[in-house]
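thread: overnight batch results

M.L. [08:02]
morning all. the overnight job finished for the chain we discussed friday. pasting input first so we're all looking at the same thing
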Amino acid sequence: MIIVLANARIFDGVSDEIAEAKHVVIESGRIREVASRKPEFNDATVVDCRGKYVMPGLIDAHFHAYSPSFDIPGIDRMPPALLANHARIILEGALERGFTTVRDAAGGDVGLWLAIEQGLIRGPRFFFSGKALSQTGGHGDVRRGDQLELCGCSGYTGALSLVTDGPEGVRQAAREQLRHGAHQIKIFVSGGVLSPTDPMWMPQFTDAEISAAVYEAATRRTYVMAHCHTDDGARRCVECGVRSIEHGTLIRREDTAALIASVGSYVVPTLSVIEVLHQHAPTLRIPPESVEKIMGIGDEAFRAIETCSRAGVKLGLGTDLLDHRFHPLQAGELELRGRVQKPIDVLRSATSINAELIQKSGELGQITPNAYADLLVLNFDPLRGLASFGDPINIPVVMKNGVFIRNAL
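M.L. [08:03]
and the structure it wrote out:
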């Protein structure tokens, strides 16, 4: 079947300008052509966009499918079937909001990927990391330091992450995630908010451990994404070959940003989760230490984005949202970024830059021949403001792989 999105204004994911009066021809799940004159087909389905805006589907490069709560130990105790059904609702909601691709940053597994591929979950394209790798007492280790572990065992493996130490331990753990089909490897290189025993400034994993993960990922022609808030941690990531620095909240030095830009690594800011925690932390089931930590970051995250932008760092876009109550705020990440960047730059982050980051440049995040037909039709001009992404009613058409997820035209 051929589908034509006719009479559209097009943001192609890359260009500075909106192309007027174009027609997108879709065949077998891919974009066949973008035509200036309306093509004629005997058997085509034609959707008249009537001058509305068409753009590539959004990509969330820091997503958590297994995240019905901020209470990570509580997630660990959930029956797997219950957790999977939470994930189904979270994934299907993301697609309805126009996110046609997500990169899962911890816990997402081959089971969810297969469920989407086989149509059991009507969700976005799903790039998963498996369990994220943490050192003992690192950000992925959610055991409290003031509680006795009665089982007598050592180590930790939870729903989202596992603990491993030493280069050989990291190597084995990375190989295990890759054996299960992980699309990339996730590690923790600095402290974080929700973990109870590590300060935000704490360096995590040695250079040898980070390099072991990078090497193993490269054997599968993939890469490492690293949770990292700090400036010195970001430098270590770059020096060890990490492709994707997650959060980057405390990148302050111009020379650090210049180093990141010079090697072509990416930074993926995640403003939504900071906003949620600032507003709701006292009411969430998180450690008291976490409430104190989150108060230490906020404006810093916006300044880090400005620092990276000035240096020419490739900025992706992610949300890092947890808790089923807050996933509907996913598209608000674009508006938050718009406070410190022009809309066109935010849109590129959410489309072509994220696609390049996940090694799918030219296939995702662009409206170009042979790219997958993951497309949105908008009732608003995205270059004049990004707040309208927050309400799905402003996105009358969502298409994934040439199939209408929603078509209100």
